[in-house]
């Protein structure tokens, strides 16, 4: 009797697993077909600004300032995002000496030219948490003494060219409207549910949830051992591009990073300090651009879609050298905190494009101004 029961249960489970596998495969097949249809070119090479974007942006600024105040906790007022720095380091950005004519744009006009720069490495969270927490890791580069009239000047009125990236390849929302509703839901304590705004399955953003989960990744061995992406698109003279910064181990002396104690709160700063200040070994990167091919699905208004590298490969336009140096002093850390990076600190040739970048223009400026004002008053 018992034996027959087990056999029956075994058959039932077997059928259940087979049915689930078939359903899974069917779902995967249908999903792939749907995305192949939805994500097919051609796409526009121009920006398309939806109605109501400016109004949504204003209310996002108010939310952002509220977050800054929430995380203050009797300290200086920190950034609303990427609050924790692993260090600001000096770097040299050299334009590739054999750059094709069509890529000689803006600050990359003169092959071989070297720009002095600041680079700030960060964790993505608004709260300066332990480095072992899953998070995005940021890299922001500021080229100094850039001639020409930028779209927006830095706080001191200086002319700079900034590149602001983090180490995932896609953004977890499509546009300003989705950013607003997702941010509001997150502020209400909803995490996963922020991607399911209603009972209507058409509003579910499963793909964006997966991107968000992927963005919150374990820390790399060191801030100089991961690839950072612009994620959002930019102009590059006549081209529309995305850019990225990738470690270039071949250009620097070989370096085997020491394993860090991941229980220490700031082990990413420790790794940077170990390499640059104790072992005195430089770190090297390449700055690369990926041109939009509008015949394929490489949209401007949706940074949740990665542009396919097999269709449009990245091309190196400059090398970045972070020389051995001492960077971890109270003065330099304070200076670093006071810097403002903004994708709109840019020459017109490198103008940020797309909804998320339009949103960033107003938000970065407002949050930076707010925190500088509050810190000056302390
Ligand atoms: C493509 C998408 C994005 C990337 C790659 C990105 C990356 C970064 C990075 C690396 C920083 C730190 C810069 C530094 O070291 O000072 C930063 C700061 C910041 N981000 Fe983003 N971000 C993105 C989108 C957004 C969006 C959509 C918002 C909000 C609307 C936002 C709000 C901010 C704010 C307020 C700061 C601090 C600005 C300051 O106080 O100086 N970011 N972001």
Automatic annotation (TrEMBL):
Organism: Zestomonas insulae
InterPro entries: Catalase, Catalase_core, Catalase_sf
Keywords: Membrane, Transmembrane, Transmembrane helix
Name of protein: catalase
Its EC number(s): 1.11.1.6
TM region positions: 12-37
CDD domains: y4iL_like
Gene3D superfamilies: Catalase core domain
PROSITE patterns, alphabetized: CATALASE_3
EC main group: oxidoreductase
UniProt cross-references to Pfam families, sorted A to Z: Catalase
Domain Catalase core: 70-335
């Amino acid at each position: 009797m018992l034996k027959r029961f087990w056999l029956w249960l075994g058959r039932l489970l077997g059928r259940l697993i087979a049915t689930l596998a078939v359903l899974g495969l069917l779902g995967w097949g249908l999903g792939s077909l749907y995305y192949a249809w939805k994500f097919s070119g051609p796409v526009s090479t121009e920006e398309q600004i939806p109605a109501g974007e400016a109004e949504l942006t204003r209310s996002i600024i108010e939310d952002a300032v509220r977050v800054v105040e929430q995380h203050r906790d009797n300290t200086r007022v920190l950034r609303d995002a990427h609050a924790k720095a692993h260090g600001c380091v000096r770097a040299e950005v050299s334009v590739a000496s054999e750059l094709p004519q069509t890529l000689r744009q803006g600050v990359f006009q003169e092959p071989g030219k070297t720009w002095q720069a600041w680079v700030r490495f960060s964790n993505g969270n608004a709260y300066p948490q332990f480095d072992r927490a899953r998070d995005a890791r940021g890299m922001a580069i500021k080229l100094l003494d850039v001639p020409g009239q930028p779209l927006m000047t830095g706080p001191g009125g200086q002319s700079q060219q900034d590149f602001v990236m983090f180490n995932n390849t896609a953004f977890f929302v499509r546009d300003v409207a989705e950013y607003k509703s997702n941010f509001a839901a997150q502020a209400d304590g909803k995490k996963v549910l922020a991607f399911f705004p209603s009972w209507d399955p058409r509003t579910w953003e499963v793909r964006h949830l997966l991107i968000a989960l992927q963005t919150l990744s374990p820390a790399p061995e060191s801030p100089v051992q991961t690839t950072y992406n612009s994620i959002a698109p930019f102009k590059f003279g006549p081209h529309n591009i995305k850019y990225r910064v990738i470690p270039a181990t071949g250009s620097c002396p070989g370096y085997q990073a020491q394993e860090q104690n991941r229980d220490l709160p700031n082990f990413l700063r420790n790794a940077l300090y170990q390499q640059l200040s104790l072992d005195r070994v430089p770190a090297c990167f390449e700055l690369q651009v990926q041109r939009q091919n509008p015949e394929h699905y490489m949209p401007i208004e949706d940074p949740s879609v990665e542009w396919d590298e097999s269709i449009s490969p990245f091309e190196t336009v400059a090398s970045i050298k972070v020389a051995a140096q001492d960077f971890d002093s109270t003065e330099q850390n304070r200076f670093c905190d006071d810097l403002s990076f903004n994708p709109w600190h840019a020459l017109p040739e490198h103008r940020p494009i797309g909804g998320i970048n339009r949103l960033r223009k107003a938000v970065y400026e407002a949050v930076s101004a707010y925190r500088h004002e509050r810190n000056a008053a302390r």
